[in-house]
Amino acid sequence: MTSLIHFGVRVLDLIFAAGLIGTVVVLIMTGFEDMMTIFGKSPDEPRTRYARAAHQSTSTPAAIR
């Protein structure tokens, strides 16, 4: 019975480690993508950062003094 519990704990350890490694990989990939976007090396740029919705005005906002 004790060996079954130890086996279960080891399986949970492996699942936790796999999740942790996957999270680190995703964070590293996201960081590289963000750096490429910030420094202008991204193939997605240039694009409009904030496209206006269809219901928004296309006029230029007034200058604030």
Write the layout of secondary structure elements.
Elements: H1 2-38
Would you mind describing this structure in some detail?
By secondary structure, this protein is an all-alpha fold. It has a domain at 1-39. It has one helix and no strands. It has one helix at residues 2-38. The model has no long low-confidence stretch (mean pLDDT 82).
The gist of it:
It is built from one helix and no strands.
Sheet-strand content, in percent, reads under 5%
- Largest beta-sheet characterization: none
SSE order in H/E notation?
H
State the low-pLDDT regions, or none: none
Radius of gyration: 24 Å
Q: How confident is the prediction overall: mean pLDDT? A: 82
- Structural class assignment: mainly alpha
Instruction: Find the count of extended strands (DSSP E, 2+ residues).
Output: 0
Shape: elongated
Helix content: 55-70%
Distance between the termini: 78 Å
Number of helices: 1
Oligomer: single chain
